[in-house]
Write a structure and sequence with these properties.
The protein is α+β, with helices and mostly antiparallel strands. It is about 30% helix and about 40% strand. The chain is built from five helices and ten strands. Helix 1 (about 1-20) packs across helix 5 (about 245-265) and helix 4 (about 215-240) packs antiparallel against helix 5 (about 245-265).
Length: about 290
């Protein structure tokens, strides 16, 4: 309940800002190049990690998975403030494999093994601390992707006969994903330590994979989500103007907290607050290395 109240308050606070832009267009003017590509410093990033798939309506349990991922993109860094605070933005394309065979733990016989291939496009940004020999960059990251899940076993073959109906119901849910590309959203929060050309990353990723795509409900959900983020942007701008040193931490905590709260609501309804289906979700701890040229 607290999450819902928090999100609704942010959306309500953002309405006046959007009303000012209404006269400039027939709808909301996002005044944002969130998904517009532009050149900058090329980078290559390699990530690996481990995580857990989930579906709130499945009686069965997925086996834990490992992740291997590569990103190619461009990074841009604004001139730092007097206190060494610097805005940064990275836009990229990515390719990932998420599978049981990529994690070191042994699968339990009662758990469902799976593999997933995904690709998509993302954006990472934030405010960081620019020191002489190191940059510390807490970041907020969002992406869209297309994922193909392939089940390596099915509920009927791993569950007891007494739970056969649950197994059959689970199988019907999973068949909608199996060997089909499905659209989804990805959010991540983390920190990047940059030592010139080489950077080390650590992050926590939350993924939502839709069983089907419902355009208008997704558009409405996305508009609500972005409205809250725009309200946070305005507040964070005021914080940075008043106390630049606090800006990177405030930006990191507020935006990642908001994104995770919104993700938590989408675990039940894929296009919250609209009455939509329950998606498959993944939560993954990630480590990575980035080479910036």
């Amino acid at each position: 309940m607290f999450k819902k109240i928090f999100l609704l308050v942010l959306v309500a606070l953002s309405v006046p800002a959007f009303a000012q832009n209404y006269q400039k267009s027939l709808g909301w003017d996002w005044d944002d190049d969130r998904w517009h590509w532009k050149t900058g410093q090329p980078f290559i990033e390699v990530n690996w990690g481990f995580g857990s798939p989930d579906h709130k309506k499945l009686y069965s349990k997925f086996s834990d998975v490992g992740l291997a991922e590569i990103k190619l993109g461009f990074a841009n860094y604004d001139d730092p403030y007097d206190e060494g605070i610097q805005y940064f933005e990275m836009k990229y394309a990515f390719l990932s494999q998420i599978a049981n065979k990529l994690q070191s733990g042994k699968r339990k016989l009662s758990e469902l093994p799976s593999e997933m291939l995904r690709f998509g496009f993302g954006r990472r940004d934030g405010y960081g601390y620019n020191f002489d020999n190191i940059k510390i960059l807490p970041y907020v990251q969002s992406a869209i992707g297309w994922s193909k899940i392939e089940m390596k076993d099915w509920p009927v073959s791993v569950m007891l006969a007494s739970s056969m109906q649950n197994a059959l119901d689970d199988t019907e849910i999973l068949k909608r994903y199996d060997k089909n590309f499905r659209f989804g959203t990805i959010n991540e929060g983390g920190i990047n330590f940059s030592f010139g050309m080489v950077s080390l990353n650590a992050g926590y990723e939350a993924t939502v994979i839709f069983p089907r795509y419902v355009f208008w409900k997704h558009l409405g959900s996305y508009a609500i989500e972005m409205a809250g983020l725009r309200a946070l942007d305005k507040f964070i701008d005021e914080v940075i103007d008043a106390s630049p040193l606090a800006g990177p931490i405030v930006n990191f905590l507020l935006k990642n907290g908001y994104n995770y709260a919104f993700y938590s609501l989408k675990k039940e309804k894929m296009n919250w607050p609209f009455n939509t289906e329950t998606p498959i979700t993944y939560e993954t701890i990630k480590l990575g290395i980035t080479f910036t040229f």
